[in-house]
Design the sequence.
């Protein structure tokens, strides 16, 4: 299998955009879905530079089965949001490799970790009315802690965690009352809860409107940034004098390390414009368009469809109607003034 895999990878050519959906679907096809004694692990290596993130999440939710997905992000600017969410939904982990000299060590750590699962099939239950997050726990691997949080009204009861060590059932019960106090835990729980809500919307379990409402409620309660909330900084000391007009300027941006302009945009980097050219372009942008006066519309055009004609022109009928309406108003006012008081 290794020789076949190496031959397949060696024959690949990298061109065009990043394609993730098709290879992910292919990797998640499980010919031994009923197997219970072996773990199925998928390692997905990518820079994550795609725009259809929600489609990828939906694919994982629908086709993951018993597979665990381990995301490996490569390059100086990988899509960490995509990688982290995909790993959570795939009940795996996320590994970041930003430099070439990190490939050997990071991949060795990953393969050592996934080759030594400590506890599989983890589940947790907390006494009382509590909301655990994440609701689906990943497997426990050596050197990779499983972190879960809960929202509860009181620190009472116990937390039960169950799983399998090999083929042997394993469980542990922890008293909640002895938990140590910490700061910022509510915000961590809120971020996890928001991720679960958005995942439910991606999988079609709730509508987008329901997802937005729930995310907004959680974010406002715990004061976090989300898809529905933002933190806004208001500058109260403007640099521009109030009597000066606004100006337009281009601000250059640097590409992430290791990226080349030609590979991303497919053309040579244009020469920078001079100040005179920039000012002229800005003036042209701010100018109002001048519309020429339209040509006079001919009034002697013959009708294309023969319409019934009346003996009296429409203009005359409109004038007579207005005159009668005015007379009616005058008579009404006169009648009101001449009406007896006792009437």
Sequence:
């Amino acid at each position: 299998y290794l020789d076949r895999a190496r031959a397949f990878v060696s024959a690949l050519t990298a061109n065009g955009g990043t394609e993730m959906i098709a290879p992910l679907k292919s990797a998640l096809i499980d010919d031994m879905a009923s197997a219970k004694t072996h773990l199925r692990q998928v390692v997905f290596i990518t820079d994550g530079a795609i725009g259809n993130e929600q489609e990828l999440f939906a694919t994982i939710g629908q086709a993951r089965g018993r597979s665990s997905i381990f995301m490996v992000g490569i390059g100086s600017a990988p899509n960490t949001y995509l990688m982290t969410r995909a790993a959570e939904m795939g009940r795996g982990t996320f590994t970041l490799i930003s430099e070439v000299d990190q490939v050997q060590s990071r991949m060795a750590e990953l393969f050592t970790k996934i080759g030594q699962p400590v506890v599989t099939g983890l589940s947790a239950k907390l006494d009382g009315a509590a909301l655990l997050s994440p609701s689906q726990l990943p497997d426990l691997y050596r050197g990779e802690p499983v972190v879960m949080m809960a929202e509860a009204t009181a620190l009472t009861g116990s937390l039960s965690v169950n799983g399998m060590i090999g083929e042997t059932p394993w469980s542990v019960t922890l008293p909640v009352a002895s938990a140590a106090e910490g700061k910022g835990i509510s915000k961590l729980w809120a971020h996890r809860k928001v991720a679960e809500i958005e995942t439910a919307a991606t999988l079609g379990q709730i509508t987008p409107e329901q997802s937005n409402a729930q995310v907004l409620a959680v974010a406002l309660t715990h004061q976090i940034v989300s898809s529905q909330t933002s933190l806004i900084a208001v500058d109260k000391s403007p640099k521009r004098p109030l009597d000066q007009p606004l100006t337009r300027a281009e601000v250059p941006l640097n590409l992430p390390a290791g990226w080349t302009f030609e590979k991303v945009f497919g053309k040579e980097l244009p020469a920078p414009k001079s100040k005179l050219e920039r000012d002229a372009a800005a003036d042209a942008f701010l100018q109002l368009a001048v519309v020429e006066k339209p040509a006079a519309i001919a009034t002697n055009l013959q009708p294309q469809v023969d319409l019934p004609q009346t003996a009296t022109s429409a203009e005359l009928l409109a004038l007579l109607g207005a005159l009668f309406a005015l007379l009616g108003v005058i008579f009404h006012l006169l009648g009101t003034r001449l009406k007896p008081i006792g009437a």
